Amino acid sequence: MVSFSKVVCFLAASLNLKYSLALPLEHNSELPHAIKSRQQQYFAITGVTDGGVQPRLEIRTLASTKPEMWNLFLLAMERFKAMDQTTRESYYQIAGIHGAPYSAWDRVSGSGNWGYCPHGSNIFGPWHKPYIVLFEQVLQQKAKEIANALPAGTNKDKYVAAANELRLPYWDWAIDPAGGTVMPASMSTKTISVTYPNGTTATIQNPLYTYNFNPLRAADFPDPNNNMPPFDEWKTTLRQPSSSTASAVSNDAALEKELKGNLNYNRAQLYKLFTQTQKYQTFSNKASGGSIGNLESLHDNIHSAFGSGHMGWPPAAAFDPAFWLHHCNVDRMLALWQALYPSTYVESASQKGPTYTIKKGSSQNANSNLTPFHRDTAGSFFTSANSRGITNFGYTYPELVGATNDTLKAKINALYGSTVQGIITKRADGSSTAPRDYVAKVSMPWIGLEGTFSVGLFLGDFNHDPKAWAKDPNFLGAQTSMSNPYTPDNDVVITNSVVLTQALAKKHQSGELESLDEETVVAYLAKNLHWEVQRQGVIVPKTDVPDFKVVVQSIEIKPAESASDFPVWVGGWSTHSAVTDSAN
């Protein structure tokens, strides 16, 4: 095996491209006055303007079908991450917009120990759109630098075309991995093979696995009350860290266990969000007061799977490369939902928590500035209204290419609805009444336990150790409340629905549940439905959680009549108080 250093030297000598093909350090070499001059203008977020409108691809699809683009993506990510951390467009500075180090980006000043990101807000979804576009724009520029530095010829033309069409891929954590892992190997292995544009191959540190702080500045991760993991000591991003010491390492198996254990719940919850009509305000965020569930809480569940690692805490989450692929998927889900329900969007709402630039209690609406994101070099801001579309940013998603309402519904059914539809069909078989959908509605405070915590639900006996929940055969799923421990208290109560129908059908198939008639099901749930609260792997007494409540309800459901149709809830909810009145 040729060493990586020799490969780099060979490429540099043969192509006279010292920094274009490998992992070159890209520390800014401009003179101070040149940097100052360049940064007097605001950074204009335009999206990728090359190659027309191109679809963002699922990461496994990109890796398996677009070899040149895939290799450019990996090399561009590495070049992006190697930039000087003090440069405005560096990976470090852009990641820092979300939370720590709580400093101004692009000269948009603010204050407080929280980032620009508006969690629990009506602008949660729209704010992340220009944020992801900014990341994508710089990433694609790095790919162009690599391709444009090649010698003229057919090979260069091929890579320039690939760079022009490159868009940030998304990681769909809700699809059935068909025997594989929920997190693809391309994101979870420490090293990865790349093929350079001249055909030379090498094994490099996987740019999608971690981010190495260079240098780590402890002051960038303030934690005066010692409420967070030691981000001020970890020199690289970690996932499910093995300990809370400086020597901790990532536990990739534990992360996959959490993702796999929550897969059915997350997919069922996503399908409910797509298929059951609600206003944008209640669909979009966890502070909206909705009861079906919301996109932000579902997004929180993925962050929570990373445990006490960087992704599990808002102040540090964006430094993990997985953040960008995860949020690209959240943007996709928002885009698909908006295509299904185009008549509802951001409405004015009071902010339940502060950000670096938004005061708690202030009112934000579709025309409020999405700070710190500028549309042009003069300093005009994006708003939810002027950033509502996606094609104007140069991207779309595969499901939206040439889509009609029917084709979009069919694609959503194929991706996420097969399990739910099958359960509904089986639920109806042999029953003298109309099929019913059963859910446990979990209400929990957003700010209640000085940081992120979750509620795990089980149908049957279970292991009380939170580290064992995800592999427990009776585990239904966990609902997370993700928060910055320094966010001021608020009165937000988050409500989400844990779907019970699939688990009940399986219990019936195994013979454990005698019948699927309502009386039998309710009696079974009263005896077998359990829940626990945990924070950082430690059980928390339920009485210590303010406003915590679990309510079991059911509703009649009309199954979809075709592949391009959605199931529909019919009538009103029935509350089964006997379930939660029993001892848990």
TrEMBL record:
EC code: 1.14.18.1
Keyword Signal carried by entry: yes
Pfam families: Tyrosinase, Tyrosinase_C
Molecular function terms, GO-annotated: metal ion binding; tyrosinase activity
Family annotation (InterPro entries): Di-copper_centre_dom_sf, Tyrosinase/Hemocyanin, Tyrosinase_C, Tyrosinase_Cu-bd
Leader sequence segment: 1-22
Domain of life: Eukaryota
Reactions that this protein is recorded to catalyse: L-tyrosine + O2 = L-dopaquinone + H2O; 2 L-dopa + O2 = 2 L-dopaquinone + 2 H2O
Keyword hit for Signal: yes
Domain Tyrosinase copper-binding per the UniProt entry, residue ranges: 320-331
Keywords: Copper, Melanin biosynthesis, Metal-binding, Monooxygenase, Oxidoreductase, Signal
Protein family: Belongs to the tyrosinase family.
Protein name stated in the entry: tyrosinase
Protein species of origin: Patellaria atrata CBS 101060
